Amino acid sequence: MAGKRKKVSVDERKNRVVAVFDTRFYTPESIKSSAEDFEDCCRLQIRSWKDDITVVLSPKSRDINLDFLGYEFYNYVLARMRSKMPG
Amino acid sequence: MSKKRLKSAVDNMEVFDAENYLILSVNPRIYSLDVVYYAAYVLLDRAYVILGGDPKKKILVELRPKDNTDLKSLGREFNNELLNYAVYLKQSAKNQKLKEAILQRVLMTNLAPVEGCEPNELLGDPGGITKPWGREHGRKKKKG
C-alpha cells in the first residue's frame, strides 16, 4: 500500500472494488474521464472527501477478475495523466 | 562514506514477498513528481503502479508485477527510469532556448515581412539566387 491506508480493497461479498485516489497525485479530471471509459464494463460510484476521491467499481460481468480491476483502473488513470503531460 | 551509510542511501525499497509487491520511497527534492510520473508510465505494461505518500516530503510508489518479474529487479529498474527521466528533463530544459530558436527560424518563412526590410535581408542570400525572375528574364518588348 502506497501510504498508510489501503488504496484498493476488494469486497467479494458485494462484488465490488473500492479504489481511493489521492488528488495530490491523481487529478480529478483524469479520474472522472477514466471512470467514463470504464462505464461499459462496470457500474461506478464516485465520492470525494478532503484530498481523496473514492471510486467504487462493480463489474457488470462475472468474467472480470475483482482482484485486478482496481489496479487496472489505477494504471488507466495514470496513463490518462501521462497523455496530458508534455514531452 | 561508510558501508552502513551507503546502504541506506541506495536502499529505497521495501519488499513484501508474501503479498508480491514492493514500495519505493522517492525524495521529491531529488526527483520531482513529473519524473516519478514518467518513470511509472514506462512500467505500466509490466506492473500495477500506485502513487501515495506526501508529494512534498516523501513520495511512495507501490509496484505490483503483472507477471513473475523479480520484485527487486523491478524496483531497481524503476530507480533507473527515475534517473533516466531526470536527466532527460534537465537536458530538455537546457536545450529549450535552442529548440525555440530553431523553430522560430523554420517558421520565419511564413512571417509577414518586417517593414522597411526585404525578406532576403532576414534570411540571407549568399548565392544571390533570390532575384525576381522578371528583372533579368522578363519578356522583351517587341520592336514595332
Give a topology summary.
The complex is a heterodimer of chains A (87) and B (144).
Chain A: E1 8-11, E2 16-22, H1 28-37, E3 42-49, E4 52-59, H2 66-83
Antiparallel strand pairs in A: 1-2, 2-4, 3-4
Chain B: H1 3-10, E1 13-16, E2 21-26, H2 33-42, E3 47-54, E4 58-65, H3 71-94, H4 96-107, H5 119-123, H6 133-137
Antiparallel strand pairs in B: 1-2, 2-4, 3-4
What can you tell me about this protein's structure?
The complex is a heterodimer of chains A (87) and B (144). With 87 residues, chain A is α+β, with helices and mostly antiparallel strands. Chain A has one domain: Alpha-Beta Plaits (2-Layer Sandwich). Chain A is 32% helix and 31% strand. Chain A is built from 2 helices and 4 strands, in the order ββαββα. Chain A has a 4-stranded antiparallel sheet with strand order 1-2-4-3, with helices on one face. The radius of gyration of chain A is 13 Å and the shape is globular. Chain B is of the alpha+beta class and 144 residues long. Chain B has a domain at 3-97: 2-Layer Sandwich (Gyrase A, domain 2). Helices cover 44% and strands 18% of the residues of chain B. Chain B has 6 helices and 4 strands, in the order H-E-E-H-E-E-H-H-H-H. Chain B has a 4-stranded antiparallel sheet with strand order 1-2-4-3, with helices on one face. In chain B, strand 1 (13-16) and strand 2 form a beta hairpin. Chain B is rod-shaped, with a radius of gyration of 29 Å. The interface between A and B is medium-sized, with 20 and 23 residues.
